[in-house]
Fold:
Amino acid sequence: MKLSEMFEQAPEIEIEGLCLDSRQAKPNDIYFCMSGIMFDGHDFVEDVIAKGVKAIVHAKPIEHMHKGVAYIQVENVNRTLNRIASLFYQHPSRYMKVFGVTGTNGKSTITSIIQDVYSHFHPCGYIGTIAIRYGDVELPPSLTTPDPILIHKSMADMRAAGMEACALEVSSHGLELGRVMSVDFDIAIFSNLTYDHLDFHGTIENYLEAKKKLFTNLKSDGVAVLNRDDAYYQAFADCTNGRLVTYGIKHDSDYRAMDIQIQTDGSQFTLLHHEKSYTIKTNLVAMYNIYNLLGAIAGMCEAGIAIEDMLPYLASIKQIEGRMERIDEGQLFNVIVDFAHTPDGLEKVFEYAKDITKEGHSIIAVFGSAGKRDTKKRKVFGEIASKYCDSIILTEDDPRDEDAREIANEIKEGIKDTKNIFIEDRYNAIRQAIESAGAYDTVLILGKGDEVFMYREFGREPWLGDHNVARECIRRYCLDNHEENN
Ligand SMILES: CC(=O)N[C@H]1[C@@H](OP(=O)(O)OP(=O)(O)OC[C@H]2O[C@@H](n3ccc(=O)[nH]c3=O)[C@H](O)[C@@H]2O)O[C@H](CO)[C@@H](O)[C@@H]1O[C@H](C)C(=O)N[C@@H](C)C(=O)N[C@H](CCC(=O)O)C(=O)O
Structure:
């Protein structure tokens, strides 16, 4: 595309790519100088020109201007980046059905359900914490909500591969840092809002303001799908420019679940919508997943899929790795791996464990808390865990440059009478939990979900993954013992 097609009065230079990181600059790119927390993109202008970049979009004055390079000074580089990223990739979000999902918990689950079920009707891609995924393509994730260039490029690749829709996880960071300013959303879904990321947003009010941004600029026929039972429902209902649709359990809603039955291997409920009722059978478990499923059903129905037509697919939703993932190697006790890393997320998993663990059997939890992130939640984790668990094994969880034992000590401050130990090495902590479990106990491995990395002192290091470790420990240390015991 010619630079002159992107900026008025710009020269007719052919542009081949967009770039906001000098380390990835290529010949004939435009480089956008973003001022960040650590660096200022304006400092890398000479580097990128040496790499063959042909245009610089900047806010601050540039001292040395090179011949053959176009310099475009703008007031707000991020806003320009968003506009150009959409234009350069031919506005893919305008021509796809775009679902945006935000909320503290449930984003990955709701978007994954949508990708799975909606694809039976119209091919649908997914961008989020787990991956960038469409058709047979699965690319590793960058951020939950990537930068505008990667978002629009991924959507353009999806369109080229025949995708007609995309389900996008929209984080509060993504909203606050303006990564989705030029994405055209058809359906925006709000799951819930609880205490999280206050290290970045400062206050819950700021966090709420960031989340609201998804709902204020929907396509002209856009729909805001809101959790009617969430304490912050009204704030979203008041701010949206979209048509308002609600889902819930406790309050009267457009999509309401009643008569909910939750078992270890699935759930069933009656869905009331427009005076009709439907029996929903799903392999998803736990009450909070009923909310996630309701949000996804409401979103897809508003996008034109009849509930009757979805029913067969809701019974066999693809297991989402690391999200309430049941690890079943034939052992006699329950093992669940979940990504929960907020007080609310933890409590919801514990409530479910309480429901499925029969009287006289134990709940054993393995978890820690991230270093350099929301340190106030540590003691709260301890308080919540000791309400539900019979035994707690504290361990490392992305300690960064903090001491995992110190973090565990802060969690312990909240633990009342529950038996607890600290095993720093996460593999050994999981092994200990699994070896100590008796028949019909429930082992919960919480915090990292499907992540196969651990943030330590010197950055991101490989980690086997909680689900893989749990499987290995059950097979190696436990099945033989149980067989011998029986
Ligand atoms: C707080 C935050 O989100 N920061 C993001 C932000 O960083 P920043 O503003 O500090 O940027 P910076 O590193 O100072 O660099 C400024 C500019 O100089 C450029 N640069 C920098 C160095 C260099 O050598 N050359 C160069 O060109 C950078 O590409 C950038 O454009 O812009 C960077 C470039 O796009 C992002 O990589 C970075 O994400 C960091 C790595 C991050 O960890 N973000 C997390 C917190 C995040 O966004 N998480 C949410 C989900 C959270 C959740 O729900 O759990 C997400 O959506 O993933």
In short: The longest strand covers residues 255-262.
